[in-house]
Every structure is written in structure tokens, then in C-alpha cells.
Specification:
Low-confidence stretches: 1-9, 332-350
Radius of gyration: 20 Å
Structural class: alpha/beta
Order of helices and strands: EEEHEEEEHEHEEEHHHHHEHEHH
Strand order of the largest sheet: 3-2-1-4-8
Number of domains: 2
CATH architecture of the largest domain: 2-Layer Sandwich
Largest sheet: 5 strands, mixed
Mean pLDDT: 87
Shape: globular
Strand content: 15-25%
Helix content: 25-40%
Distance between the termini: 15 Å
CATH superfamily of the largest domain: ATPase, nucleotide binding domain
Number of strands: 13
């Protein structure tokens, strides 16, 4: 288990977790028990800028936290393809990273051990250890945000694949010749079930001056560029039919994708995280319906549960911070050598 009891004091095992998404960079000091002691957050620098700008942002956040806490290592959860050495970001669809040697650059600048992990893997690590998946051994995590990230836990072990690229579910093609994706392909799953997908469809309704979108049009004064995913969710929760339908459509696509993943991995649990998942049953209800409808062997096989993540926006930085402890000498980790083997057998300490 990642987070173990008897850490021998928080100060010996404090690490910083960094969560880099398409729109924000979040940082936190995390104890061996998974508790976040301090937080920092800033907007992701414009992706048209050089990768060094994001690197500079990370350094600033870590240095701020180091002034308050004796940090021993840094874990970075990056929204992109991370190599098998957990050192370089090979490709980031929503950021200007191409074969970026992020680990070595940050290690040199910070003078601390650094590990780089895919952000969805980091979130999954935390959720399986101390969140919605703590009683499960075979889990697929799907994070719905700007795009779609994913992670796989098989028999209690985080599965990264041979080249470190497993879990990039958002770029499965679900609609041949469909919407263009930032990754360069067409018809990727994240173009139909992510926050960006909901926002795009809502903006099209407003741009068309659709009569079914009157509350949405009024909310943004007729300006489609002002529409955000949270606004659509808010109006849907207030009963606006058009926004409810937008979430239902995204949920349906989510369920179809989960049925495909069930055919491939046969997990006992799907954990749905990310900002879009905060819509709750407005999204997960249609997803469960579509999942059952498209599941191969339906009616003759056990069905995986579909549950919302429990750790919210902090899952990525909690998981990244804990993964950073692998870089520490045993005497500084403050706990036994871990490996996500039997997550149901141990519980975290504060």
C-alpha cells in the first residue's frame, strides 16, 4: 500500500506533489498518510509559450512551499505521455511539451529528487490507496477534465505498460472521421465525453441562437466564448433542460467508452474523476445506462461498478507526492518499502 501507518513523524516524509493540467498547476505538501498540509495553485501558462515557462512555474511553487516545510522530494503529475523511466514528457496534447526532459531539469534547479508521472496514474494511485478504490484490486480510473486521462490497476499494481504510455483512453477513436482532436487524430473519445466536449456543444447551441438554449444564452449575454463547463453544470443542476441534455450526451459517450474498456480489462470498478465528474448523477446516470446497453455479454456476466472519485482535485498531487517517496533512501521514507499490492489490507494514517 502506498500510504502506511507508523510513518515515524510527518517531517521525515514530507514531499511535494504537483498536478499539471490543461488549465492549472496545483502544488501541495503531503504527509506519508496522504494529508495535504499546504497548497498552492496558479493558472497554466499559455501553451503557446516555451515549455520552460511551465517549468519555471513549478519551481516557483515548490520554492514557496520549501520555505515553510522541510520537503524531501517532488512528484509531478503531468497531463501527457510520460516515458517508462518517469523522466520525460514525450507528448502533451494540451501543452507545448515534446520529449521534454522534465525530471532532470527540475532536479538540477531544485536540488531535490524528482519523479514525473502521468497525471491520471498519479490520481489513480491516490484513489486506489485512500479513495473510492481502497477496497478493490482491479480498477480502471477515468479522469474527465479538459480531456480524458486514464489509469489501470491490475491485481493491486499500477500498470504503466512497456513504454509508460498505458491508460491514454481519451485518444481511442470512437467516431472515425469525427471531431478533430488536439492530438492530431479525429474522433477521439475525449472529443465526446470530456469537459471540452460539453463546452463545445454548448457554444454551438448559443452561436446558433437555438431557442432551446435561452437560459444559457442569457447567462452569457449571447457570447459563446463565455461558456464554461462549470456554467453548464450549474445550469443543469438548476433544471435547465438543454444543459441536462448536454450532460446526458456526454454521459452516454462515457458509458460507451467504459463498455469498451470493460471488454479489454474486465475490472471490478470504474472510478470517474476530474472536474466533469462533479456533475454527479447528471453524468453518471446516463453513463451507467449506456454502459449496460453496450457491455459485451450483458446479462450473462458480472458488471463492474461505476463510482465517482472521492479525493476531488487533490488526487493528482496526493498521488504524485507519494510516488516521489520512491526516490528517497529507505531511512528517509519513514515507512516500509511499498508497492500497491493489497490495497484493502491497510489504511492510511493522518
Amino acid at each position: 500500500m502506498a500510504f502506511t501507518r507508523g510513518a515515524g513523524g510527518h517531517q521525515r516524509g514530507l514531499t511535494v506533489g504537483i498536478d499539471i493540467g490543461g488549465t492549472k498547476v496545483a502544488a501541495g505538501v503531503v504527509t506519508p498518510g496522504g494529508r495535504v498540509l499546504a497548497r498552492r495553485r496558479t493558472e497554466t501558462p499559455d501553451k503557446s509559450k516555451a515549455p520552460k515557462v511551465v517549468e519555471d512555474t513549478i519551481v516557483v511553487l515548490v520554492e514557496e512551499l520549501r520555505r515553510e516545510y522541510p520537503v524531501n522530494a517532488v512528484g509531478v503529475g503531468a497531463a501527457g505521455f510520460v516515458d517508462e523511466r518517469r523522466a520525460s514528457v514525450l507528448f502533451a496534447p494540451h501543452l507545448a511539451w515534446r520529449r521534454e526532459p522534465l525530471r532532470d531539469a527540475l532536479t538540477t534547479r531544485l536540488g531535490l529528487p524528482v519523479v514525473v508521472e502521468n497525471d491520471a496514474n498519479a490520481s489513480a494511485w491516490a484513489e486506489v490507496c485512500v479513495g473510492a478504490g481502497r477496497d478493490a484490486r482491479n480498477v480502471v480510473v477515468v479522469n474527465l477534465g479538459t480531456g480524458i486521462g486514464g489509469a489501470i490497476v491490475i491485481d493491486g499494481t499500477l500498470h504503466r505498460g512497456r513504454y509508460g504510455l498505458a491508460g491514454e483512453f481519451g485518444h481511442m477513436t470512437v467516431v472515425p472521421k469525427g471531431h478533430r482532436c488536439e492530438c492530431g487524430n479525429r474522433g477521439c473519445w475525449e472529443q465526446y465525453a470530456s469537459g471540452n466536449a460539453v463546452t463545445r456543444e454548448a457554444r454551438e447551441l448559443v452561436a446558433a441562437d437555438s431557442p432551446v438554449a435561452r437560459p444559457l444564452i442569457q447567462a452569457v449575454g449571447g457570447d459563446p466564448s463565455l461558456i464554461t463547463g462549470p456554467l453548464v453544470s450549474e445550469l443543469a443542476s438548476e433544471g435547465d433542460r438543454a444543459c441536462i441534455e448536454l450532460l446526458e450526451e456526454a454521459g452516454t459517450w462515457l458509458g460507451i467508452g467504459l463498455a469498451n474498456l470493460a471488454a479489454a480489462f474486465d475490472p471490478e470498478l470504474f472510478i470517474i474523476g476530474g472536474g466533469v465528474s462533479e456533475c454527479g448523477d447528471l453524468l453518471l446516470g446516463p453513463a451507467r445506462t449506456a454502459f449496460r446497453r453496450h457491455l459485451v455479454g450483458r446479462g450473462y456476466r458480472p458488471e463492474a461498478r461505476i463510482a465517482a472519485a472521492e479525493l476531488g482535485n487533490e488526487a493528482g498531487l496526493i498521488g504524485a507526492a507519494d510516488l516521489a517517496r520512491d526516490t528517497l533512501p529507505r531511512r528517509r521514507r519513514g515507512h516500509r518499502r511499498r508497492g500497491l499490492r493489497h490495497p484493502a489490507l491497510r489504511r492510511p494514517t493522518p
